[in-house]
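User: Predict the structure for this protein chain, please.
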Amino acid sequence: MIKKNKLPIDKPRCACGVFGVFGNPSASLLTYFGLHALQHRGQEAAGIVSSQFDKKKKKQVFNIIKGMGLVTDVFKDQKILSEQLKGNSSIGHNRYSTSGASKNRQNIQPFIVNYANGNLAVAHNGNLTNFHKLRTELQNSGTIFQTTSDSELFLHLIARSKKKNQIDKILDAVNKVEGAFSILILTDTSLIIARDVFGFRPLSIAKKGKSFIVASETCAFDIIDAEFVRDVKPGELIVIDKKSLTSGKMKSYKLKKKTQTTHHCIFEYIYFSRPDSYINGESVDKVRRKLGQALAQESFVKSDNNSAPVIISVPDSSNTATLGFVTESQKLGSSSQYEIGLIRNHYVGRTFIQPAEDDRAMKVKTKFNTVKQVLKNKKVIVVDDSIVRGTTAKQLVKLLKEASPSEIHMRITSPPIVQPCHYGMDFPSSKELIAVQCNKDVEKIRKEIGVDSLQFLSIEKLLESVPKSKTKNYCYACFGGPYPTPIEKGKIKEELDK
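Assistant: Here is the predicted structure, written as structure tokens:
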């Protein structure tokens, strides 16, 4: 039997979402809408920093508002944006904690500091794999940390750099960190953005008029009618300043560390990104449909003489892949039909009264409900994107059985997760993963979840379904693949959360 886990979440959680604006009088308002579009990347906390020239003080000042909750919770008063976050440039952050305690308000980004070269604000998406080493070195040299987040490292490394000008200080700092980072750095005169050499996390640039917009996903450009320009290249640092507004050009620098190939996080296509986004130049919707088609090819469910199988998705993240699964199943001769068998409640926010910690069935029911007449006496094929601990999947199957289907078959558009992620996803330790607890035996997982059949997409089919080239590859370490970078041993950063 699988051990009971106190944590109810059974989905991978993404690191964060970042959004930035340079050279627009409505910078904070645009950032608010951008963060709203990126809400799926983090729901624990949100924050915005704006840069404003103070005529009385005759200098540039930074304004900051951040707090726990959704974007609409933190910025529910419009005066916050119009009166407290004035300025022509801003950066924002949606947080889901992967490093640093989630309930620690000091860990809410963006982080700001005033040092010898002026104001500095940082918003970071990703996880640094040499965090403990760098933090220990800085502490031994007298640095005092205000948070337990790895993102704070950037501020201290920049401030302590021996380089002369600010850009060189930032380059020096970014070249010292390892792991995953898509980072926005706001200074008194510019917006600086950088992406790690492997390109783990996405980061894109757009324009709205003459102003520049930066976001984790392209779907955030659509809400403010910004025009996509290009992705930030892996291993690239870009400087956007006042000259950029008139020339339309950005200064680009290469990070020192070199790699033969990128290692984009493959989970961006499976689950994290919205289907209306383009990630690394490819439509997420298109890739997800391919994943569904590949899954159908590997795990076809035959029709019987009694009735056509009903195919349903676990909304919302598996909706698109399910359409691909249905299309391919029908091509293969199945009489199966797509139906809406699960209804998701989209209004369960952070403040919703939670049931008792061990009442997992109630937790699932607050989020999903079945359409009983669709499922009753039917062979039901449930398509989902992933299974982490198996706790929610087990309760979801129990909920579906209350609708009296004749059979339940579960199909997953990713392979079994067998290793934790060190690059920005909140996967539990290996011992908490259901695939590890079941010794990677799919039949054991099937019995534990309680379905008639269970199949995962193979790693081979997964890699066939995502776009690749000689220089474009993927990180799939969570599925048993190699970690692209060395992983810190000894003390781990989670110790800081105690």
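The chain has 17 helices and 24 strands.
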